Amino acid sequence: MEETKEIHALLHLIDDPDEEVYSSVSSRIIALGSGIIPNLEHLWETTPDEPVQERIEMLIHRLHLQDLRTDLRDWSQEKEQDLLTGVLLLSRYQYPDLNLTATLQELEKIRRNVWLELNSFLTPLEQVNVLSNILYNYYKFKGSEVNYLKPDEFLLPKLVESKKGNAISIGLLVMVLSRMLDINLQVINIPRQFILGYFDDWLRIKQRATYPPEQIQFYLDAASGQIYSHQDVETYFKRISVPPSASYFRPMSNRNLVQLLLEEYAKCFMDESKRYKQDDLLNLSGLLDDAEPDETDAE
Fold first, then answer.
1. How far apart are CA 191 and CA 153, in angstroms?
2. Which of 56, 71, 147, 245 is deepest in the core (most CB within 10 A)?
3. DSSP annotation string for the chain
Protein backbone atom coordinates (compact mmCIF):
# COMPACT_ATOMS: atom_id res chain seq x y z
CA MET A 1 0.00 0.00 0.00
CA GLU A 2 1.31 3.43 -0.94
CA GLU A 3 2.59 5.16 2.17
CA THR A 4 0.42 8.25 2.53
CA LYS A 5 0.89 10.84 5.26
CA GLU A 6 -1.80 9.08 7.31
CA ILE A 7 -0.16 5.67 6.99
CA HIS A 8 3.25 7.12 7.82
CA ALA A 9 1.80 8.72 10.96
CA LEU A 10 0.01 5.50 11.98
CA LEU A 11 3.15 3.39 11.58
CA HIS A 12 5.14 5.95 13.56
CA LEU A 13 2.64 5.72 16.44
CA ILE A 14 2.69 1.92 16.78
CA ASP A 15 5.34 2.23 19.49
CA ASP A 16 3.35 4.82 21.49
CA PRO A 17 3.38 3.78 25.19
CA ASP A 18 -0.09 5.23 25.78
CA GLU A 19 -2.50 2.30 25.45
CA GLU A 20 -5.40 4.52 24.42
CA VAL A 21 -3.35 6.01 21.61
CA TYR A 22 -2.19 2.57 20.48
CA SER A 23 -5.74 1.20 20.62
CA SER A 24 -6.94 4.02 18.36
CA VAL A 25 -3.99 3.57 15.99
CA SER A 26 -4.42 -0.21 15.76
CA SER A 27 -8.16 0.11 15.07
CA ARG A 28 -7.45 2.50 12.20
CA ILE A 29 -4.76 0.19 10.78
CA ILE A 30 -7.12 -2.78 10.88
CA ALA A 31 -9.78 -0.68 9.13
CA LEU A 32 -7.37 -0.07 6.24
CA GLY A 33 -7.39 -3.80 5.47
CA SER A 34 -4.77 -6.34 4.46
CA GLY A 35 -3.26 -4.07 1.83
CA ILE A 36 -1.21 -2.47 4.59
CA ILE A 37 0.47 -5.76 5.56
CA PRO A 38 3.58 -5.19 3.35
CA ASN A 39 4.10 -1.83 5.08
CA LEU A 40 3.88 -3.52 8.47
CA GLU A 41 6.26 -6.28 7.40
CA HIS A 42 8.80 -3.71 6.23
CA LEU A 43 8.45 -1.86 9.54
CA TRP A 44 8.98 -5.13 11.45
CA GLU A 45 12.19 -5.81 9.50
CA THR A 46 13.58 -2.37 10.28
CA THR A 47 12.50 -2.19 13.94
CA PRO A 48 14.97 -3.54 16.54
CA ASP A 49 12.54 -3.08 19.44
CA GLU A 50 11.08 -6.51 20.33
CA PRO A 51 7.88 -5.24 22.03
CA VAL A 52 7.14 -3.13 18.95
CA GLN A 53 7.75 -6.16 16.73
CA GLU A 54 5.23 -8.09 18.82
CA ARG A 55 2.67 -5.34 18.30
CA ILE A 56 3.30 -5.45 14.55
CA GLU A 57 2.96 -9.25 14.50
CA MET A 58 -0.38 -9.02 16.29
CA LEU A 59 -1.62 -6.36 13.86
CA ILE A 60 -0.69 -8.56 10.90
CA HIS A 61 -2.42 -11.50 12.59
CA ARG A 62 -5.59 -9.45 13.11
CA LEU A 63 -5.60 -8.34 9.48
CA HIS A 64 -5.27 -11.91 8.22
CA LEU A 65 -7.98 -13.00 10.66
CA GLN A 66 -10.29 -10.27 9.40
CA ASP A 67 -9.96 -11.58 5.82
CA LEU A 68 -10.42 -15.18 6.97
CA ARG A 69 -13.56 -14.26 8.89
CA THR A 70 -15.01 -12.61 5.79
CA ASP A 71 -14.19 -15.59 3.56
CA LEU A 72 -15.58 -18.10 6.08
CA ARG A 73 -18.80 -16.13 6.42
CA ASP A 74 -19.15 -15.96 2.63
CA TRP A 75 -18.52 -19.72 2.39
CA SER A 76 -21.15 -20.47 5.03
CA GLN A 77 -23.76 -18.45 3.15
CA GLU A 78 -23.28 -20.22 -0.15
CA LYS A 79 -26.17 -22.41 -1.25
CA GLU A 80 -23.94 -25.49 -1.16
CA GLN A 81 -20.70 -25.35 0.86
CA ASP A 82 -17.79 -27.12 -0.83
CA LEU A 83 -16.07 -29.25 1.82
CA LEU A 84 -12.55 -28.90 0.42
CA THR A 85 -12.82 -25.11 0.33
CA GLY A 86 -14.04 -24.99 3.92
CA VAL A 87 -11.31 -27.31 5.20
CA LEU A 88 -8.59 -25.33 3.42
CA LEU A 89 -9.85 -22.08 4.96
CA LEU A 90 -8.71 -23.35 8.36
CA SER A 91 -5.14 -23.77 7.10
CA ARG A 92 -4.99 -20.04 6.43
CA TYR A 93 -5.41 -19.30 10.13
CA GLN A 94 -1.97 -20.65 11.05
CA TYR A 95 -0.36 -20.25 7.61
CA PRO A 96 -1.99 -17.24 5.90
CA ASP A 97 0.56 -17.19 3.07
CA LEU A 98 0.49 -20.92 2.42
CA ASN A 99 0.52 -21.78 -1.30
CA LEU A 100 -2.22 -24.37 -1.80
CA THR A 101 -1.31 -25.21 -5.40
CA ALA A 102 0.83 -28.20 -4.42
CA THR A 103 -1.95 -29.52 -2.15
CA LEU A 104 -4.58 -29.30 -4.88
CA GLN A 105 -2.26 -30.93 -7.43
CA GLU A 106 -1.51 -33.82 -5.08
CA LEU A 107 -5.20 -34.33 -4.32
CA GLU A 108 -5.91 -34.52 -8.04
CA LYS A 109 -3.14 -37.13 -8.47
CA ILE A 110 -4.64 -39.25 -5.69
CA ARG A 111 -8.14 -38.86 -7.13
CA ARG A 112 -6.94 -39.92 -10.58
CA ASN A 113 -5.07 -42.96 -9.24
CA VAL A 114 -8.20 -44.13 -7.41
CA TRP A 115 -10.46 -43.37 -10.40
CA LEU A 116 -8.28 -45.49 -12.70
CA GLU A 117 -8.90 -48.50 -10.45
CA LEU A 118 -12.66 -48.04 -10.22
CA ASN A 119 -15.30 -49.41 -12.57
CA SER A 120 -19.06 -49.81 -12.58
CA PHE A 121 -18.86 -53.54 -11.77
CA LEU A 122 -17.32 -53.00 -8.32
CA THR A 123 -19.54 -53.26 -5.25
CA PRO A 124 -19.56 -50.32 -2.80
CA LEU A 125 -17.30 -52.27 -0.43
CA GLU A 126 -14.85 -52.97 -3.26
CA GLN A 127 -14.86 -49.29 -4.24
CA VAL A 128 -14.03 -48.21 -0.69
CA ASN A 129 -11.34 -50.90 -0.46
CA VAL A 130 -9.73 -49.48 -3.63
CA LEU A 131 -9.72 -46.00 -2.09
CA SER A 132 -8.31 -47.32 1.20
CA ASN A 133 -5.64 -49.43 -0.49
CA ILE A 134 -4.33 -46.50 -2.52
CA LEU A 135 -4.36 -44.11 0.44
CA TYR A 136 -2.84 -46.36 3.10
CA ASN A 137 -0.74 -48.81 1.12
CA TYR A 138 0.35 -46.92 -1.99
CA TYR A 139 0.62 -43.38 -0.59
CA LYS A 140 1.40 -44.58 2.96
CA PHE A 141 -0.95 -42.20 4.76
CA LYS A 142 -0.83 -42.85 8.49
CA GLY A 143 -3.46 -41.88 11.02
CA SER A 144 -3.11 -41.51 14.76
CA GLU A 145 -5.25 -40.54 17.70
CA VAL A 146 -5.98 -36.85 18.07
CA ASN A 147 -3.04 -35.14 19.80
CA TYR A 148 -3.64 -31.49 20.68
CA LEU A 149 0.12 -30.97 21.05
CA LYS A 150 0.46 -31.48 17.28
CA PRO A 151 -1.72 -28.79 15.67
CA ASP A 152 -0.32 -29.35 12.16
CA GLU A 153 -1.91 -32.81 12.14
CA PHE A 154 -5.32 -31.10 11.84
CA LEU A 155 -4.40 -29.25 8.63
CA LEU A 156 -5.11 -30.87 5.27
CA PRO A 157 -2.11 -29.33 3.42
CA LYS A 158 0.25 -30.56 6.12
CA LEU A 159 -1.37 -34.01 6.00
CA VAL A 160 -1.00 -34.20 2.22
CA GLU A 161 2.64 -33.08 2.50
CA SER A 162 3.76 -35.35 5.36
CA LYS A 163 1.27 -38.25 4.91
CA LYS A 164 0.74 -38.09 8.70
CA GLY A 165 -2.40 -36.81 10.37
CA ASN A 166 -4.99 -37.57 12.99
CA ALA A 167 -8.36 -39.28 12.74
CA ILE A 168 -10.14 -36.01 11.94
CA SER A 169 -7.84 -34.74 9.18
CA ILE A 170 -7.56 -38.13 7.48
CA GLY A 171 -11.31 -38.61 7.78
CA LEU A 172 -11.85 -35.28 6.06
CA LEU A 173 -9.34 -36.26 3.36
CA VAL A 174 -11.36 -39.43 2.73
CA MET A 175 -14.54 -37.36 2.59
CA VAL A 176 -13.04 -34.90 0.09
CA LEU A 177 -11.83 -37.71 -2.17
CA SER A 178 -15.15 -39.53 -1.86
CA ARG A 179 -16.97 -36.44 -3.09
CA MET A 180 -14.57 -36.15 -6.04
CA LEU A 181 -15.16 -39.81 -6.92
CA ASP A 182 -18.93 -40.01 -6.25
CA ILE A 183 -18.42 -42.63 -3.54
CA ASN A 184 -21.27 -42.21 -1.08
CA LEU A 185 -19.33 -42.11 2.18
CA GLN A 186 -20.58 -39.69 4.83
CA VAL A 187 -19.15 -38.75 8.23
CA ILE A 188 -21.56 -39.72 11.00
CA ASN A 189 -21.70 -38.48 14.56
CA ILE A 190 -20.79 -41.59 16.58
CA PRO A 191 -19.52 -40.47 20.04
CA ARG A 192 -15.74 -40.23 20.52
CA GLN A 193 -15.03 -41.57 17.03
CA PHE A 194 -14.52 -40.17 13.52
CA ILE A 195 -16.33 -42.77 11.43
CA LEU A 196 -17.77 -42.72 7.93
CA GLY A 197 -20.76 -44.74 6.77
CA TYR A 198 -21.51 -45.91 3.23
CA PHE A 199 -25.11 -44.88 2.48
CA ASP A 200 -27.34 -46.63 -0.04
CA ASP A 201 -29.68 -43.69 -0.52
CA TRP A 202 -28.70 -40.30 0.87
CA LEU A 203 -31.86 -38.63 -0.48
CA ARG A 204 -34.13 -40.82 1.65
CA ILE A 205 -32.03 -40.06 4.73
CA LYS A 206 -32.24 -36.32 4.04
CA GLN A 207 -36.01 -36.67 3.83
CA ARG A 208 -35.90 -38.70 7.07
CA ALA A 209 -37.87 -41.50 5.44
CA THR A 210 -36.05 -44.27 7.29
CA TYR A 211 -33.99 -44.94 10.39
CA PRO A 212 -30.46 -44.04 9.17
CA PRO A 213 -28.63 -47.32 9.98
CA GLU A 214 -30.99 -49.13 7.64
CA GLN A 215 -29.37 -47.20 4.76
CA ILE A 216 -25.76 -47.79 5.86
CA GLN A 217 -24.07 -50.85 4.32
CA PHE A 218 -20.83 -50.65 6.36
CA TYR A 219 -18.57 -48.26 8.22
CA LEU A 220 -15.02 -47.02 7.63
CA ASP A 221 -12.51 -45.95 10.27
CA ALA A 222 -10.59 -43.37 8.24
CA ALA A 223 -7.58 -43.27 10.57
CA SER A 224 -6.79 -46.93 9.92
CA GLY A 225 -8.82 -47.83 6.83
CA GLN A 226 -10.55 -50.60 8.77
CA ILE A 227 -14.07 -51.63 7.76
CA TYR A 228 -16.69 -52.14 10.48
CA SER A 229 -19.99 -53.99 10.34
CA HIS A 230 -23.26 -53.09 12.05
CA GLN A 231 -22.41 -55.66 14.71
CA ASP A 232 -19.09 -53.94 15.39
CA VAL A 233 -20.84 -50.60 15.87
CA GLU A 234 -23.53 -52.11 18.11
CA THR A 235 -20.80 -53.68 20.24
CA TYR A 236 -19.08 -50.29 20.53
CA PHE A 237 -22.27 -48.62 21.78
CA LYS A 238 -22.72 -51.34 24.38
CA ARG A 239 -19.12 -50.92 25.51
CA ILE A 240 -19.52 -47.17 26.10
CA SER A 241 -23.02 -47.68 27.62
CA VAL A 242 -24.73 -45.28 25.21
CA PRO A 243 -28.01 -46.15 23.45
CA PRO A 244 -27.55 -45.91 19.63
CA SER A 245 -30.11 -43.21 18.73
CA ALA A 246 -30.83 -42.17 15.14
CA SER A 247 -28.98 -38.84 15.54
CA TYR A 248 -25.63 -40.64 15.75
CA PHE A 249 -26.11 -42.11 12.28
CA ARG A 250 -27.19 -39.05 10.33
CA PRO A 251 -24.51 -37.61 8.01
CA MET A 252 -22.84 -34.43 9.21
CA SER A 253 -23.16 -31.45 6.88
CA ASN A 254 -20.12 -29.73 5.41
CA ARG A 255 -20.79 -26.75 7.65
CA ASN A 256 -20.85 -28.93 10.75
CA LEU A 257 -17.67 -30.74 9.70
CA VAL A 258 -15.76 -27.46 9.32
CA GLN A 259 -17.20 -26.26 12.62
CA LEU A 260 -16.01 -29.45 14.31
CA LEU A 261 -12.56 -28.99 12.79
CA LEU A 262 -12.35 -25.41 14.08
CA GLU A 263 -13.42 -26.42 17.60
CA GLU A 264 -11.03 -29.37 17.79
CA TYR A 265 -8.15 -27.31 16.39
CA ALA A 266 -8.85 -24.62 19.03
CA LYS A 267 -7.97 -27.16 21.73
CA CYS A 268 -4.35 -27.06 20.54
CA PHE A 269 -3.97 -23.58 22.01
CA MET A 270 -4.76 -24.01 25.70
CA ASP A 271 -1.70 -22.38 27.29
CA GLU A 272 -1.99 -18.74 28.29
CA SER A 273 0.40 -17.33 25.67
CA LYS A 274 -1.69 -18.83 22.86
CA ARG A 275 -5.14 -18.48 24.38
CA TYR A 276 -5.99 -15.69 21.93
CA LYS A 277 -5.76 -18.25 19.12
CA GLN A 278 -8.28 -20.47 20.85
CA ASP A 279 -10.62 -17.49 21.19
CA ASP A 280 -10.13 -16.64 17.49
CA LEU A 281 -10.97 -20.17 16.37
CA LEU A 282 -14.03 -20.47 18.59
CA ASN A 283 -15.26 -17.13 17.30
CA LEU A 284 -14.83 -18.41 13.74
CA SER A 285 -16.82 -21.49 14.70
CA GLY A 286 -19.51 -19.18 16.06
CA LEU A 287 -19.92 -17.67 12.60
CA LEU A 288 -21.15 -21.07 11.43
CA ASP A 289 -23.57 -21.22 14.36
CA ASP A 290 -25.18 -18.06 13.07
CA ALA A 291 -25.49 -19.36 9.51
CA GLU A 292 -28.86 -20.66 8.39
CA PRO A 293 -28.86 -24.47 8.09
CA ASP A 294 -28.68 -25.78 4.56
CA GLU A 295 -30.23 -29.17 3.98
CA THR A 296 -28.29 -29.63 0.75
CA ASP A 297 -24.73 -28.96 1.92
CA ALA A 298 -24.00 -32.55 2.83
CA GLU A 299 -24.59 -33.77 -0.71
1. 21
2. 56
3. ----HHHHHHHHTTT-S-HHHHHHHHHHHHHH-GGGHHHHHHHHHT---HHHHHHHHHHHHHHHHHHHHHHHHHHHTSSS--HHHHHHHHHHHH-TT---HHHHHHHHHHHHHHHHH--TTS-HHHHHHHHHIIIIIIS--EEE---TT-GGGG-HHHHHHHSEEEHHHHHHHHHHHHHHHT--EEEE--TT--EEEEES-HHHHHTT-S-GGGGEEEEEETTTTEEE-HHHHHHHHHHTT----GGGGSBPPHHHHHHHHHHHHHTT--SGGGHHHHHHHHHHHHHHHHSPP-TTTT-
* Domain locations along the chain: 5-76, 83-290
Q: Convert the pLDDT of each residue in 31-53 to its tens digit.
A: 999 999 999 999 999 999 999 99
For 72-106, the pLDDT digits (tens) are 999 999 988 999 999 999 999 999 999 999 999 99
DSSP 8-state class, residue 250: S
φ, ψ (nearest 5 deg) of residue 144: -140, 170
Residues 114 and 99: their CA atoms lie apart, in Å, by 25
